[in-house]
Amino acid sequence: PVLEAAFPQAEACLAASAERVQDVLPVVDAWAEGLVASLQLDDADADGATEMGPGLDAERWAELSGAQRRLALAHWYRGWRAQGLSASWLQRLAHEVPGLVYRQHAAQWPEIALALYRGVLRPLGPTPGARGDGHGQGLKGSAALLAGCDGAFNIDTPGDHVLAPWHGVLRVTEVAQGGVNPELLAHARALARCGGEQFQMGPGRPPRALKKQFQSAGVPEWRRTGPLIWAGDQLVFVPSLGVDARCLAPQGSPQWGLEWVAEGT
Questions:
Q1: CA-to-CA distance for 251 and 253, rounded, in angstroms?
Q2: Going by DSSP bridges, is the β-strand pair 159-164/145-146 parallel, antiparallel, or unpaired?
Q3: Residue 145, exposed/middle/buried by CB under 10 A (0-12, 13-18, 19+)?
Q4: Sheet holding 40-41, edge to edge
Q5: Whole-angstrom Cα distance, residue 25 to residue 100?
Q6: What does pTM read for this prediction?
Q7: Tens of pLDDT along 145-195?
Q8: Burial class, 227, CB count within 10 angstroms (exposed 0-12 / middle 13-18 / buried 19+)
Q9: Which of 25, 50, 153, 263 is the most exposed place for a label (fewest CB within 10 A)?
């Protein structure tokens, strides 16, 4: 009533404006869909894009105008997240990310499950056990695997095993190749990095420092956390790198594959 008292034609003008916006929105959506398709990177190009969705070429995206960046980001994010970004987040990222890209910095925003690494915006995955496709089922909940003060633990069956207090699960599966002898996990240890660890990426390749291996594999800082799995004095498994080649079981023998799934990834 106050608005109409000041502007008698307010209702008619607002209705006309709404009609014009309704005509424009499908055109904008089609434009945004085409733009996002040209900026998206497949798994190979994205260098580590997660299964949640393809990465977005942030370098090319940053060259757009502010309004175009916000629209493209909103469309891309909604496409894999099934929900939209707030106006405040769109404004912040459209302003903040281009500077990070220019300085070649990495960043992550856990609140919206988004990360920037090597010039690519990437979705971060869900919390383990939150998916409905069977992953996370069989989690050893009440029988959570508690590593002792020296990191010692014992795994005698495949499945998702909680390693407290690491905030994640060690996923153990039966595999045909690329795994370890199950006996290695009978008296294993889960320990943090302390420096000086050597890891061998493949048979016949020289062991190198973990930092060098992470850099060579393009593993971002936030994926370098999680426990290192040892058997005696031999490093067996490193999250994001896999099984040390010196611990690979012979082809044709019983073996288990290992995967570290951290909360929020």
A1: 6
A2: parallel
A3: middle
A4: 40-41, 55-57, 120-123, 114-117, 107-109
A5: 31
A6: 0.52
A7: 444 445 677 788 898 888 766 778 899 999 999 999 999 888 888 888 877
A8: buried
A9: 25
